[in-house]
């Protein structure tokens, strides 16, 4: 069975994209491999994102805040899907992605900007559930039977379904 690589992009690569990376790999039991990156990485992963990822059972040692440039280099994993999860990253000019991956924008508000620890934790859990719902639909698509445009259409409809 073919594995599919999914790159989640967010400007800082510290919260939403990190959750997307961990959820994709854990929910699909490795059939879909999640990656994450940012256009202007913060350099650290948000502690609340780490807490949620730890609850998922995803290895924390695989997480780090990194630049999207890593995935445009020769020898980088080939991406089948690229999903932006913040509005800033969606509006930025992205690097060239070899192989013309299917792209989508699944925007979520930045949970790290919510004031107060409990409110922030709830905001993170809301993003986690939103991503979980979308990723569960993605990993259940018959990707091997769909062409590029059909996949892109499905990715868009998945996001619309949960707004």
From TrEMBL:
<keyword id="KW-0059">Arsenical resistance</keyword>
<feature type="domain" description="Phosphotyrosine protein phosphatase I">
    <location>
        <begin position="4"/>
        <end position="141"/>
    </location>
</feature>
<dbReference type="GO" id="GO:0046685">
    <property type="term" value="P:response to arsenic-containing substance"/>
</dbReference>
<protein>
    <submittedName>
        <fullName>Arsenate reductase ArsC</fullName>
    </submittedName>
</protein>
<dbReference type="InterPro" id="IPR023485">
    <property type="entry name" value="Ptyr_pPase"/>
</dbReference>
<dbReference type="InterPro" id="IPR036196">
    <property type="entry name" value="Ptyr_pPase_sf"/>
</dbReference>
<dbReference type="Pfam" id="PF01451">
    <property type="entry name" value="LMWPc"/>
</dbReference>
């Amino acid at each position: 069975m073919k594995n599919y690589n999914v790159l989640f992009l967010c400007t800082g690569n510290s919260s939403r994209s990190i959750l997307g990376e961990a959820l994709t790999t854990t929910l699909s039991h490795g059939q879909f491999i999640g990656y994450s990156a940012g256009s202007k990485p913060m350099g650290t992963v948000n502690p609340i994102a780490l807490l949620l990822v730890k609850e998922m059972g995803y290895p924390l040692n695989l997480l780090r805040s990194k630049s999207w440039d890593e995935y445009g280099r020769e020898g980088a994993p080939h991406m089948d899907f690229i999903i932006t999860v913040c509005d800033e990253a969606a509006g930025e000019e992205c690097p060239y992605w070899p192989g013309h991956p299917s792209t989508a924008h699944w925007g979520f508000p930045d949970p790290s900007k919510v004031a107060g620890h409990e409110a922030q934790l709830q905001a993170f859990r809301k993003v986690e559930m939103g991503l979980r719902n979308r990723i569960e639909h993605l990993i259940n698509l018959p990707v091997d039977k769909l062409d590029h445009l059909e996949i892109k259409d499905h990715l868009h409809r998945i996001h619309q379904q949960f707004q």
